[in-house]
C-alpha cells in the first residue's frame, strides 16, 4: 500500500464528505422525520416549512454536529478504503476499474465505515426526531443511551447499517465510475476533432452528473433498509426490538410496503447536492495533491 495515496484519499474524502453534508443537511432532517413520524409529516417541503415555522431555520441543522464530525472520519475511511481495495485488485492510480471491481471496492469501503457511522447516525436520528426549540446535545443523547441500554446501546442498528452500506456503496462507486467513464468517452468523441474547444467546465459537470446519479442509484437500491434502520434506532427512543428485520416486518404488516419508502423524495433531494459536491471536492482535492510536489 502506498502511504501517500492512502493519505491523500483520506484527506480528500474528509473534505468532500463535509462539504456534501453541509449543503444537504436540511433534507436529511426532513427525511428522518417523515420516516419516523409519518402521521405528522406528509411531504418533504411540508415538513421543512413546518420545521422552519415552529422551530426556526437553524433547527434544520439539528443534529448536524455528530454527522459532520463523523463524516470527516467516515468519508476519509470510505475513500481510502475504496482506493486500497482497488489496489488490492491490481489497479494502479489512474486505471479505470470494471463495474465489478468498483462494486467490490465500494462494498469493502462501506463495511469499513460502519464502526463510526452506526453510533453517529443513531445519535443523529434521535436528535432529529425531537420536536421543539430545546435541543438535546450529542453528548447528552449518547450518555442517555449508555445509561439506559449500556455501552452496546450505541451499536443499535448495527446489522441494518451493515446491510445498507455494503450494498449501497458497492452500487454507489460502480455507478459513479461507469457514468463518469461513459461521459468522458462521450465528451472525447464529441470534441475529437478539436479537443481545445471543449469548455473547461465540462469536466466539473461530468463529475457533478456522475456523483448525482451514483447517489440516486445507491439510495434507490437501499432506501427501504434505511427506513427500517431509522425506525429501529428511534423506536420509542431506545426501547430495543428483537431485530431490525422484525421492525421491518411489522411496518409492512401494519402500513404496507409503501411505508418503507416514506421520505424517499426528501432523500433524493438531499442526495443530489450531497453526492455531486462530495465527488467534486474529492476529485479536485486529489488533483491538487497530484499537482503539488509537497504532497
What tags apply to this protein structure?
single chain; 295 residues; mainly alpha; 74% helix; 0% strand
Write up this protein.
The chain has helices at residues 3-36, 44-55, 65-88, 99-128, 138-149, 158-190, 202-234, 244-255, 264-291. It contains 9 helices and no strands. The protein is mainly α. It starts with a helix and ends with a helix. Helix 1 (3-36) packs antiparallel against helix 9, helix 6 (158-190) packs antiparallel against helix 7 and helix 7 (202-234) crosses helix 8 (244-255). The radius of gyration is 20 Å and the shape is globular. The longest helix is centred in the first third of the chain and has 34 residues, at 3-36.
Structural class based on helices, strands and sheet pairing: mainly alpha
Order of helices and strands, N to C?
HHHHHHHHH
Q: What is the number of helical segments per DSSP (H or I, 4+ residues)?
A: 9
Low-confidence stretches: none
Q: What Rg is obtained from the alpha carbons, in whole angstroms?
A: 20 Å
**Main beta sheet:** none
Report strand %: under 5%
Terminal CA distance reads 16 Å
Query: Could you estimate the helical fraction of the residues in percent?
Result: over 70%
Amino acid at each position: 500500500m502506498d502511504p501517500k495515496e492512502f493519505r491523500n484519499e483520506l484527506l480528500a474524502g474528509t473534505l468532500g464528505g463535509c462539504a456534501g453534508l453541509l449543503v444537504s443537511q436540511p433534507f436529511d432532517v426532513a427525511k428522518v422525520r417523515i420516516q419516523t413520524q409519518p402521521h405528522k409529516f406528509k411531504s418533504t417541503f411540508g415538513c421543512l416549512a413546518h420545521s422552519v415555522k415552529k422551530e426556526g431555520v437553524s433547527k434544520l441543522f439539528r443534529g448536524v454536529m455528530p454527522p459532520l464530525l463523523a463524516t470527516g472520519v467516515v468519508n476519509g475511511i470510505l475513500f481510502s478504503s475504496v482506493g486500497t481495495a482497488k489496489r488490492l485488485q491490481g489497479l494502479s492510480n489512474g486505471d479505470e476499474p470494471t463495474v465489478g471491481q468498483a462494486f467490490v471496492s465500494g462494498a469493502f469501503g462501506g463495511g469499513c465505515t460502519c464502526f463510526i457511522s452506526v453510533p453517529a447516525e443513531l445519535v443523529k436520528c434521535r436528535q432529529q426526531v425531537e420536536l421543539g426549540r430545546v435541543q438535546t446535545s450529542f453528548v447528552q443523547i449518547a450518555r442517555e443511551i449508555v445509561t439506559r441500554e449500556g455501552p452496546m446501546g450505541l451499536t443499535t442498528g448495527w446489522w441494518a447499517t451493515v446491510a445498507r452500506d455494503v450494498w449501497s456503496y458497492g452500487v454507489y462507486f460502480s455507478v459513479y465510475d461507469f457514468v463518469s467513464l461513459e461521459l468522458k468517452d462521450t465528451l472525447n468523441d464529441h470534441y475529437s476533432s478539436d479537443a481545445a474547444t471543449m469548455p473547461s467546465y465540462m469536466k466539473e459537470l461530468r463529475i457533478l452528473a456522475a456523483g448525482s446519479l451514483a447517489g440516486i442509484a445507491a439510495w434507490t437500491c437501499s432506501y427501504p433498509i434505511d427506513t427500517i434502520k431509522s425506525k429501529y434506532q428511534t423506536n420509542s427512543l431506545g426501547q430495543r426490538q428483537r431485530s431490525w428485520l422484525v421492525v421491518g416486518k411489522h411496518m409492512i404488516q401494519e402500513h404496507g410496503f409503501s411505508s418503507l419508502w416514506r421520505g424517499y423524495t426528501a432523500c433524493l433531494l438531499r442526495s443530489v447536492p450531497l453526492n455531486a459536491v462530495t465527488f467534486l471536492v474529492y476529485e479536485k482535492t486529489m488533483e491538487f495533491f497530484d499537482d503539488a510536489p509537497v504532497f
